[in-house]
Give the backbone structure.
Amino acid sequence: LLSVCRSCLVKYLEENNTCPTCRIVIHQSHPLQYIGHDRTMQDIVYKLVPGLQEAEMKKQREFYHKLGMEVPGDIKGGETKTDENSNKETSEEKQEEDNDYHRSDEQVSICLECNSSKLRGLKRKWIRCSAQATVLHLKKFIAKKLNLSSFNELDILCNEEILGKDHTLKFVVVTRWRFKKAPLLLHYRPKMDLL
């Protein structure tokens, strides 16, 4: 996985349609629409560099103000709020942020296939969830959808290898699905007791 400054990548993709390191074609005509934002890396950078996030937000506000546009994600009224309203809306923003349910995390697209005649397939086998979700989360999800009495009755496999319940989907993608296209293909089956 490659992390690159977005502005550098955008400049590069104005002239090219390939990955800057491996030279694989991203998209023939619209490569900018197929690059993802690495929120985890961004959070790490913001924590390591004091004041960077505030400086970035200030630059973003100035940019949109210069164009005469509202800043995306801003609550109506922008910075012209009174102190009383500002404090109220800040706490509301914090509450909304706390209820994000990992939607702003890096996302993973998954296809869940059943490879056993003893279990039925899911009605909706394509899901998208946080890269921080674990195999255990998927087991619980599948068990709930199939009305199983326990999620411990399931094995989840990638490339015919049983995955550990504590593996994150990010770990699975990096270690078992490297260089393959999305979605991540996972299979589930009844747990097999090994003697």
User: Anything to note?
Assistant: Helices lie at 6-15, 39-48, 52-67, 83-98, 135-145, 169-176. The chain has two domains: 6-67, 107-190.
